[in-house]
Amino acid sequence: MKDEFPFRKFERKWQERWRASRVFECSEDPDREKFYCLEMFPYPSGKLHMGHVRNYSIGDAFARYHRMKGCNVLHPMGWDAFGLPAENAAIERNVHPGDWTSQNIDTMRAQFKSFGFAIDWTREVATCHPEYYRWCQWFFLKMYERDLAYRKKSQVNWCQACRTVLANEQVENGTCWRCHQPVRMRELNGWFLRITHYAEELLNDLEMLRGSWPDRVITMQQNWIGRSEGAYVDFPLDRDTGSIRIFTTRPDTLYGATFIVLAPENPLVMKLAERSGMQAGLQAFIDKVRSVDIIERTSTGIPKEGVFTGCYAINPLTEESIPIWVSDFVLMEYGTGAIMSVPAHDQRDFEFARKYQLPIRIVIVPGGEIPDEDTMEKAYEAEGIMVNSGRFTGMPAAEGKRRIIDYLEMENMGEGAVTYRLRDWGISRQRYWGTPIPVIHCPQCGIVPVPETDLPVRLPVDIEFDWKKGGNPLADWPPFVNVRCPRCNKNARRETDTMDTFIDSSWYFARYTSARNTRSPVDPVKVDYWMPVDHYIGGIEHAVMHLLYARFFQKVMRDIGLTRVGEPFTRLLTQGMVCLEVLKCPRDGYLYPDETIQDENGSPVCAKCGQPVMVGRSEKMSKSKRNTKDPEEYLARYGADTMRLFSLFASPPERDLDWSDTGVEGAFRFLKRVWRFAQDWHEELADSANRDLHLDPEPDSSPGRIRNRVHQTVKRVTANFESRYHFNTSISACMELVNELVAIPGPHTGQEVPEPYCDVIIEAFRKLVPLLSPFAPHFAEELWSMMGNRSLLAASPWPEYDESVAFEDMIIVPIQIQGKVRARLEVPAGTSPEVLEAMARADESVGRWTRGKTIRKIIIVPDRLVNIVIS
RNA sequence: GCCGGAAUGGCGGAAUUGGCAGACGCAAGGGACUUAAAAUCCCUCGGUCCUCUGGACUGUCCGGGUUCGAUUCCCGGUUCCGGCACCA
């Protein structure tokens, strides 16, 4: 059977050869250029999904290409193995989270292997292994020593459904990022990492990444860090001791500050209430604010509510007494939880002042005229000249800012300051399946860190627990909780919070460089050889959280002397989602394709109720929308190479990919076509590897043109790997070449092999097969060995191209008249403008268009076009 | 509201710096092979029109502009996607 395409057989064969030859295992070699290629490691959720297939197909193409280019490639894999779904599975089906996780890992590892990814499996890590998470604990202790980890009571985002705390980044539109239930505020003690200590550096270093990270990720991180420059200003209380500190970005408007507003959570509120005797009213207001859920409270549209505290403060510059209010629009978490209100120059303050009839004073004007404060319709927020501002009157606002800050500092009334939107990272989770925080609470000594020598604090795996009960089972497990204080040896209590799993994924990329090291998280020599990651590939959903935390950890690792590298990821590629149209029945909701049947007109109807099915637009594949496709099915039917090829061909990596069964079929057809062509030429190709080729056909002969195309294709595919990463066009280029090869006469058309073609075809295959290998590695490896190569293609050099052969000798130059193509000239490349002009003027069809007209101008771009402008 | 990104045939997409719009693939239609089907191969395939083996006009979200020439650059707008959203 000549036409048979035995992909199942050869895919298994090459996977086995790669494994046995250990070709993808690597070690440090200072003499070779290193290339660290990494895709974001998966959460072991059960089985691979199409998003994984795409992600790892992209990364694998890079890894294979750079290995063939001669780089020492590190391409590892591991498991982000702690986290909530494991506990949810435990609750649903009463299996231990650890068992559930390790089964999933086994399943998914096997799947990875059946895709033939070029991975160094000796470096595999799983974050739930004590050998891994002990170093998460170690990092925690190091940070604790350096005051980068601390415990505080705070208002936290609380998800009732998950019974845990969420970081701000994990709250999406007021709902939990995992279960999408509303998030409530709750006061809780917990552990924090002082990421704000690095805010400035995390912001500034983004500039180094510009150009090699997507702009939008840089922008998102900038917005998230949210630097603002301004000043703290102290407003003394009127007829009382003490003062209120506010933060403002507009010290130049200080003379226009006519009232103060406190956040409802600000502890000052109740103190002031006591003085004014207005406790009842203020408490009622605070309770009312608290009762509103976070979604509503943080939505911009709703009108601002406020209450007067009955107390006054002194504006330090005007020395006037101004009222102190409380309102829900002021946030306790930002700045100082108190603001000065300048209604003339802040729209929100303006609306508030109008609503409660508070005074408005203009202190900045665009020109000379001062508008009427009683009739103005909105705040003037732009730059201008200061008025009504004492000694600062007449200054441009920008200068006034500096001068007022200087003055405040001189008079001890405030200081210049920078604040950030970024908050410290709350890492405590009231959950079982995570890294235990290595701390002991002693009634005598207080908080005592677990000594380094006692690490890891093992998560008890033999825990007996009713998973359905919810909450954190660790807190109810005496063997874990009851310990002796490492300092005084008296009875103490172990911390039962576990770490946010984002800790685990904040340094795994460094661990891969020294995966089995038992003395420290990373070996300093190895980590500095491999780091930073050269190509990091993953989903855009990690643009802020994971990538910001990882950057933070990298800087901490640097500062504690583990590495010299300060930024972990040199290049970032954010791949798009895998999408498919959704099917929806008006009665039964989302449907799988096999839950629909065709009616007599061939339109899809719901199999259950017979109603017409709406075909919705293409959306990210998800179980809840029932628009998923199982990679396993396609793997069995078409093989790994076809899936990989399709995933890369259907759209460029950063864009969304629409899954298409017929598209997969197309990729399969292409591979079969090349296969069949190779079989037809078997006699010529088999064991041709060591043959000397005579490659000197006339450049403008048919075989000469084939050579030209071959070398051009090598050039195009190579260029793509170096700069644009649009593998869809790389694959197109290979397809075009195959189309040209198939068009020549030969055994596949039932003809004799014409003499001049034979060596050209052999050369074509020597180039084409390696070009395809990053996309369809088993297929390429099989053809490579058929051609008589003894060594693995995966370890062979990337094909070279000869610029002089890739060079196009004859070029078709279009002739335009008034910008419209009217004729074409076939000329040798590099034909001079003079000759082109003469040829264009002499051209017959040009004459038809120019007859009776005056030629005003002729624009000539050599090798590109001729444009004749007529009057 | 603010900040990004996108918009090209029936569909996914291509067009390196302003220089032949629609590569490559999918779908569709026609044909060959076949008892038939599958597989494979060949042809057509943006739109409108004409005197139809050719040719004209038009066409890259819409409206302007710059230019000999704009999918590409500039200004204004529409729609969609994403992020942030009382941040003082």
Q: If you consult CATH, what is the topology of the largest domain?
A: Isoleucyl-tRNA Synthetase, domain 2
Q: Approximately what portion of the residues adopt beta-strand conformation?
A: 15-25%
Please give the count of helices: 29
Major β-sheet, in short? 4 strands, parallel
Give the N-to-C terminal Cα separation: 68 Å
Give the SSE map.
Blueprint: H1 7-21, E1 34-39, H2 50-68, E2 72-74, E3 78-79, H3 84-93, H4 97-114, E4 125-126, H5 130-145, E5 149-159, E6 164-166, E7 171-172, E8 175-176, E9 183-193, H6 199-204, H7 206-209, H8 215-225, E10 227-236, E11 243-248, E12 259-262, H9 268-276, H10 279-291, H11 294-297, E13 306-314, E14 321-327, E15 338-341, H12 347-355, E16 364-365, E17 385-386, H13 397-410, E18 414-420, E19 425-426, E20 428-429, E21 439-442, E22 446-449, H14 478-481, E23 482-484, E24 491-494, E25 498-499, H15 501-504, H16 508-511, H17 524-530, E26 533-539, H18 545-559, E27 569-575, E28 578-585, E29 589-591, E30 596-598, E31 604-606, E32 614-620, H19 631-638, H20 640-649, E33 657-658, H21 661-680, H22 682-685, H23 702-724, H24 727-743, H25 755-772, H26 777-786, H27 803-806, E34 810-817, E35 820-828, H28 833-842, H29 844-850, E36 855-861, E37 865-870
Parallel strand pairs: 1-2, 1-26, 3-4, 12-14, 26-27, 28-33, 34-37
Antiparallel strand pairs: 5-6, 5-9, 7-8, 9-19, 10-11, 10-18, 12-15, 13-14, 16-17, 20-25, 21-22, 21-24, 23-24, 28-29, 28-32, 30-31, 34-35, 36-37
Helix pairs in contact: 1-26, 2-20, 3-4, 9-10, 19-20, 20-21, 23-24, 23-25, 24-25, 25-26
The chain binds one RNA strand of 88 nucleotides through helix 8, strand 11, strand 15, strand 33 and helix 21.
